[in-house]
Amino acid sequence: MLKRKVDIAIIGTGTAGMGAYREARKHTDSIALIEAGHYGTTCARVGCMPSKLLIAAADAAHTAKHAELFGIQVPSVQADGSAVLERVRKERDRFVGFVVDDVEAFDSRHKVRGYARFLDAHRILVDNGLEITADRIVIATGSRPFLPKALEGAGSRLVINDDIFEFETLPASILVVGAGVIGLELGQALSRLGVNVTMLARKDSVGGIVDAEIRAMAATAFKSEFDLRLHSEIVSTKEVESGVEVTYRNGDGEIHTISTDYVLAATGRIPNTDRLGLEHASLVADSRGAPTFDRKTMQTSQPHIFIAGDANNELPLLHEASDEGRIAGRNAGIYPAVEAGHRRAGLGVVFSDPQIASIGKRAHELSSQTYVTGKVSFHNQGRSRVMAKNQGMLKVYADSKTGIFLGAEMFGPAAEHIGHLLAWAVQQALTVENILAMPFYHPVIEEGVRTAFRDAADQLKLANAKGSRDATAAIV
Fold first, then answer.
1. C-alpha distances out from residue 392 to 220, 343, 377, 415, 445, Å
2. CA-CA distances (angstroms) from residue 274 to 112, 116, 121, 130, 277?
3. Confidence at 476, pLDDT banded by 50, 70, 90
4. Residue percentage of the chain with pLDDT more than 90
5. What CATH superfamily is the domain 2-145+270-334?
6. Which run of H or of E encompasses 269?
């Protein structure tokens, strides 16, 4: 057996692994960068970029179909599935190529090909026969789609998001299981491209929206486009000659059967840590089986082992994985010294239409402190009506004592852009007063943001007035 000793071993070359490698190289040239699969990040290959390419085509078709609203006649709109998917793959491969070029440029002496498995807290066995002993280790193995057992009967007709982009043409029908980020984005896009889409969600959750009022508004909007069935649980699936027969139970306990060409599992992702032999490294795991870690340092229960990106099962977002990789790589490089890394304000976006955004803390995370809520409906918001994008709502949350902006949740137009502005405001700890002092052009969708913060300012005045009355009553 071949053996090798290094200062740092990094398992995985996705977004987190690449970030960890670049940071680690600043401190040592003794590195093993281990990868079993293809080079190229999940985002570029099967996630962010190909899905947005499909969504772009779907939005183009949707806009053309609804041009009559503006007095524009488009007699016929036909989606050429083969051409749509050909462009998706072409552009995706271009994005992947950039990432692969980056990894290929890494020092060849550092790169190791093969699957890694822990022998103990310092030794890793790669399936190419190489045993690596490392002083410090970064786990950055990413994640993969979760496939419930109830879907296994779909056989060859069961697909994940990776598979959609490899279709030669679009199917006639598809059943999407799950109304989270992946399910909503792909399901709505396929529907707008002419695919008969049915979507099942176990509860009433849509796109991860927490606020009940906004969630109900979103569900109504999506139901107007495709067949969205909430509170529905898969009982069984069966591959048949013509496709798949899916049996499910609705919220009333009734059993229904659907026939469809394919079943798309959009049922979440699980970290690729279950095959690493973590038990041999004596890592403490949480209730989900993922290693516990300090999100400020990325340090696990074994001080010399760090975990970053989707592998830690916390925030499966590219910018978070990038930050975590850098933090883990730096701390592996300076170990035994360990420093808290810079973490950004929370920001999540769902590229549905209308879009969904979560910023900073949401209402369910604010139960330990008093806060006020400001809101705006986009139904009558000027710029939104001009563009016929007048759906949705924004809610903003502010500390009732200090007026500091804490977070927001939004379903509405341009949420990907407004989300960034609000995330910057959260990170700068701006108050409602600070934000209302900022410029707001007319007419823009951001005027709706101002309306929400004006409402929050009114709520703050009421809260302060009540506090003063309560204090006076207590003195008397």
1. 10, 30, 6, 10, 12
2. 20, 12, 16, 21, 7
3. very low
4. 86
5. FAD/NAD(P)-binding domain (3.50.50.60)
6. strand 269-271
